Amino acid sequence: NAALDWQHFSLRRGAAGVTWFSLIARNMGMKTDPGMARAMLNVLRGALGKLEKTWLTDEAPFMMGSSQPCIADLLVSEVSFLLTTSTRPGSYSTPLVHPQEIFNLTLLEAIDEDFGMPPTLDALLGEDHPRITRFLAACQDLDWTEWRSIHGILHTARDKMAARKKTRSRM
Asked: pTM for the whole thing?
């Protein structure tokens, strides 16, 4: 319960708030709010710091020093997951995660500069979050055709929104 509460009230709140108040609301015909987007960025940065220092370790890429994704990874990533049989030799049937909250931050690239957001997920993480960077890389390296397909749609949406941003900036 503590991990779920933490995920909902920090990581999810920050990531969703950043993207909602700076981008998604506009694409739904609503007003954006740069002040709230920056406030949510502070929540998100705090959550990323907690994830880096408390939940991830140097021993292995997944939470609490595990070499395999587990329920804790699901809670932090997003409670949506693919129930897939693991194909790694010697492993059990494991629900594999996709770190939705963090990977959705690829939408940062489509946010207007006047919001004061980091321009990319890499810029947000910087050099201060090597464990999160390793966690994301480990999640991406899991063998999931569907996972990659889902995130391909996210990248397509980002590209379309970024193109609209360029059109607006030319006006």
From this structure: 0.70
